[in-house]
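TL;DR need structure tokens for one chain.
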Amino acid sequence: MDLSMTRRSFPARRSVLAAALVLALVGCDRIGGAGKPAFKAIDVTGAEYARSFTLPDAHGTLRTLADFKGKLVVVFFGYTQCPDVCPTTMTELAEVKRALGPDGSRVIGVFISVDPERDTGELLKAYMANFGTDFVGLRGTPEQIAQTAKEFKVFYAKVPGKTDTSYTIDHTAGSYVFDTQGRIRLFTRYGSGAKALADDLKLLLAETT
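>> reply
TL;DR here they are.
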């Protein structure tokens, strides 16, 4: 089983917890039957978690999934000072949007910060601009982030650094994909690559044509 959805830097105890979360997600995987699309990601259609969010964006405006109805929404939890997983994931999504051509405008990337202490609205806005003008950054109070992460079965934990502000954060490193009707459909593992995601998004877009 591929456990690459979690940060490779987890201490052993955190790895056990992260693996348990992966197992819970994989348990929702569906074997493609007759007429079902052959997704490369984990099919979590009908899951009773990761159903929605209500969080302020970088401008302070509350956003929900309903704001993006009619588009595919790719949701990722991370933080702006993440050294590897987060920028790689966002860069791949930007690549996917370009590869889709005109259909790329029908895909929205939503980045939910798990570091509300450091990820201010201005910082989050500048970070998202690195990937595209239509990428959306969300933040909130620690309590709001904790509640949203729980809804999405996302793990995150602060790892102390040399100073109080130099900490890193271990976190689930996969993305959720919602269809154009706002329904949860897929969980993509980190490291699957841009082509696999592009192929899956094409299948979801084809459902609406």
